[in-house]
Write a structure and sequence with these properties.
Helix content is 83%, strand content 0%. The protein is mostly helical. The longest helix has 43 residues, at 4-46.
């Protein structure tokens, strides 16, 4: 048996494996940066520090662009990338809704459908928190505005036939947030009736 060719094949495979391993390490590192920046954006928006949020958005967009340039695989097929992209969607959409009263599309954000839908489902949790804080601070118009958006998102997602799994679980949890927000709006109406 001649093993010279096979030896060369294994040497090439080893180099390719090491190259892929380095790429994977870099993607994991960059994914972690995206997750951290996403949390920073959300934290800043909740504290009404849109300047810090905007600075973090500049950084996160560069990281996302770099990840896209490095990967040839579909993002939703790689767990750590899908997680980073859904966090990115959640953070940018939260910022855009609070600052500009709009939600970017998956095309605007340059993300795949799964990452976008997962991020939108996560967004509803931050919106719930935002609405609750505004209810406590008697900014009732914001609570109603958030409730309207949440009802719209929930109604639209109801039209999907989600398979079991992470997306289905996240979608199912939205109905509880919608119910809580509707209850808050009823409480607001009761308070205004007492005036």
């Amino acid at each position: 048996m001649r093993v010279e060719n096979l030896k060369k094949t294994f040497e090439m495979l080893k180099k390719e494996y090491e190259k892929e391993d380095l790429l994977r390490d870099e993607l994991i590192r960059r994914s972690r940066v995206v997750v951290k920046l996403s949390k920073r954006i959300i934290y800043s928006v909740h504290r009404n520090d849109l300047k810090s949020a905007s600075e973090a958005i500049t950084k996160i967009k560069k990281e996302v662009a770099k990840i896209k340039s490095l990967t040839k695989s579909k993002v939703s097929d790689v767990g750590y990338l899908r997680n980073a992209f859904q966090e990115y969607v959640e953070a940018i959409c939260f910022y855009e809704f609070i600052k500009n009263k709009k939600i970017p599309t998956n095309k605007n954000l340059g993300v795949d459908v799964d990452s976008y839908l997962l991020g939108i489902c996560d967004l509803t949790g931050e919106l719930m928190r935002y609405a609750t804080n505004n209810f406590i601070n008697k900014r009732f118009n914001i609570v109603v505005e958030v409730r309207d958006l949440m009802n719209f998102v929930y109604d639209e997602l109801m039209l999907f036939d989600f398979r079991s799994g992470e997306l289905r679980n996240k979608f199912d949890s939205i109905k509880y947030s919608v119910k809580k927000l509707n209850d808050l709006v009823i409480d607001i109406m009761k308070l205004e009736d007492k005036k």
